Amino acid sequence: MRIKKMALAGLLPLMLFSCVSSKKFKALQSKYDELSKSDSALRNDLKNCNDKTADLTKQKSSCDDQVAALNKQIAFLKDNNTQALKQLEDMSVISTSQAQSIKKSLENIGAKDAYIESLQSALAHKDSLNMALVNNLKGAIGNLNDKDINIKVDKGVVYVDISDKLLFNTGKYDVTPRAQEVLGKVATVLKAQPDIEFMVEGHTDSRPFRRGVLLDNWDLSVKRATAVIRILQNKYGLQPSHMAAAGRGEYIPVASNDSDEGRAQNRRTRIVILPQLDQFFKLLEHK
Length: 287
What we know:
- By secondary structure, this protein is α+β, with helices and mostly antiparallel strands.
- It has seven helices and five strands, in the order ααββααβαβαβα.
- A hairpin with a 2-residue loop joins β1 and β2.
- It is extended, with a radius of gyration of 32 Å.
């Protein structure tokens, strides 16, 4: 009996040590899992920031080129102004009508400088609005694969390209439930800016297509564009007067149709945010 008690006394510390070690291990394991989740979230945030920085850098380069071109025009006009004044100094006698003509020309040069400055301001404002729209769209859509959806600015126009793999089943024009959620996120951003007008374009690859009521790729691309339009109008409340649907068929490819990968890129639906040209027409009006 005494031996049993001694053995029990010896085992008791080992059991307590094992219990404490297990609790510490579980606590450390939980802490490690939390740190891993935090690290993943921070890496994701860093990637989003890098993407936005790259887009802003491209836009800045484009604006710099436009400003440089306009500054050249200003320099040219100022040089002509200097030459005109030099000619006036060299002339001993000029008529009243000639003097008035020269004065008017100089005034026109000043007006031209002001006009160029207003154009620079309008371009900068438009570019800043486009970048804000792109960032809002990317923020709303989140971390969706770039192969499924791509948002970009090209020559002052915002494009949202969505692959048919995300939107439709093969050879169909019914929008999938998952794609309707994505369109809802896009609609939220567009609805927040009621003056925006846009066009939905359907695109296909070059493989011949004919099924049921669909005669060819033209028909399929139009049906897909109008299907997206109806979702945006009927489910998400966008104004039909601000939307247009277009079928592009196979005729504006972005990749070669000689490979499966290229054909997959060509099968897409594109939302084109239309520029508000009336603002620029007003700048061109004679005052």
